[in-house]
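so im writing up the methods section and need the SNARE-interacting protein KEULE record in one place, dumping it here so i stop losing it
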Amino acid sequence: MSLDSDTSSQGGDHRNFRQITRDRLLFEMLRSTRKNSKSTWKVLIMDKFTVKIMSYACKMADITEEGVSLVEDLYKRRQPLPSLDAIYFIQPTKENIVMFLSDMSGRSPLYKKAYVFFSSPVHKELVAQIKKDSSVLPRIGALSEMNLEYFAIDSQGFTTDHERALEELFSENAEGSHKYNACLNTMATRISTVFASMREFPRVHYRVAKTINASTMTTLRDLVPTKLAAGVWNCLAKYKTTIPEFPQTETCELLIVDRSIDQIAPIIHEWTYDAMCHDLLCLDGNKYVHEVPSKNGPATEKKEVLLEDHDPVWLELRHAHIADASERLHDKMTNFVSKNKAAQLHQARNGGEVSTRDLQKMVQALPQYSDQIDKLSLHVEIAGKLNNIIREQCLRDVGQLEQDLVFGDAGTKELINFLRTQLGVSRENKLRLLMIYAALNPEKFESDKSAKLMQLAGLSADDMIAVNNMRCLCGPDTKKSSGGGFTLKFDVHKKKQAHRKERTGEESAWALSRFYPVLEELIEKLSKGELPKDEYNCMNDPSPSFHGLPTSSSVRTSPAHSMRSRRTGGTWARPRGSDDGYSSDSVLKHASSDFKKLGQRIFVFVIGGATRSELCAAHKLSSKLKREVILGSSSLDDPPQFITKLKLMSVEEELTLDDLQI
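--- predicted struct ---
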């Protein structure tokens, strides 16, 4: 399977973003070494970054299937295996080259032959350093640039692993810092490798600095999207001459924005199953730990599970409202019991109710259904936990006030009344409420009113840091008012239009579903060619062959113009009538066979951290617009992480995210 043939812009490529990433790693890299290698089994050696690239896209079984018997860390002491060939997948750094040369040089190299794949473009000096060693050169089977240096965190999402982007690009002392340029350069390189992998050449749109005029000073942090767009453009220009069959004309859209477009999305409580799991449960990434009955007696034992795409129940429910997810899980359990005699007996014995624990015991009694019951009981347990937390923390009341503030149905009076009367609300949730209020009412935080509000909420000076640092994500004071959607400016008085507008025609049956991220609106505008010209520029004018469209700063692209066939990657409009109780609507089957003619891809990159609501919007809009929407960011943040990162922006000494908790 060759990338060149599989991802051409007019071909029949139906694989989603993560599948293309996976196929490149498995086939273009690992499988390609079979041709000239006499060694049946090989050793795969990676550095700390590339091992994460691999783990996000591939399973260990996939790697083994391609002839890899051992995976090693480049920086750990390794046993010599002179009869085996080695595959190196590493970043092109001086340190990595030194380690590689020490492995393969001299009379006794660690491996018979080395196939070297770099994750991004390698400097000529480093190639020259390798070629200088005459003992290493004959032992190299391949020296290649994979140009794949990102984490495919979702079928339609990636990150560049810049967890400190807020601090390095937007803090007060980011000006003139060497970290500022280093962060932007690396980010640009990694974003560009996404397009190298997809064989796509984008039109690069970006949010312009809010203060580009003669009378005001433009800050470096306000120029971040502009500088990143220029960096990506430079990398893509090189790809056009260095990567075989890289498109020479535009095949897709890329929109680069930063966190200033929407400061509320990372803080507000989101009510989808996925967002609630990551916000309210103590997950380690996507890892959830729960207790299951022990196979050796009445005791319980801890079991780790991954909430990922291979779980059909998770795939179906992750973007559903928590109330909808709970209902569907109840329906599934009812259906399972109605179709299974052993479960009916168990139900009769226990007074008509089947608990999570009962379901787990059925796994042992009904091994033929173990996988389905396992997953069903897991999600019944998780949904139960979430609903308990929602109840205990009064989150329905918190969420209602959050959304009323955003949509202009509540103000200072309602907030003060809430803080005085709702004594059971946690400090963190009060902080989040005040951060939303500050974003909407910046003038209230320019006087002693802010101190009174913080005192009323029982918050500390440390909490106030997070509120104040939100200012760093906005441009300086400008008299120009925004002509676009919802914007946040801390140094101008609130205007009525600062509140998010209600969406027409998208009413939901579920409470607390009104909120939507600004990014959703921007993607729709981009798809229609209606991005505000005074707020968004484009690096490249459209080429004459760009589907025969007229030249303009915002090109209107119809899905009919591109006949690429790909899956939609979403489960938003799935009928519920086909539910059999344990197949989870056959989501996985649909995901692999439900192909649709999709238009050109839309890529969006958020500098400073994306949210799960924005990733959810990418899936939703892929179905709505009939175009695969891929969301990229420096990181994917849940509200506690984002607030911690805001606080870190004021910390002088070197700390890790674990050192500072909200």
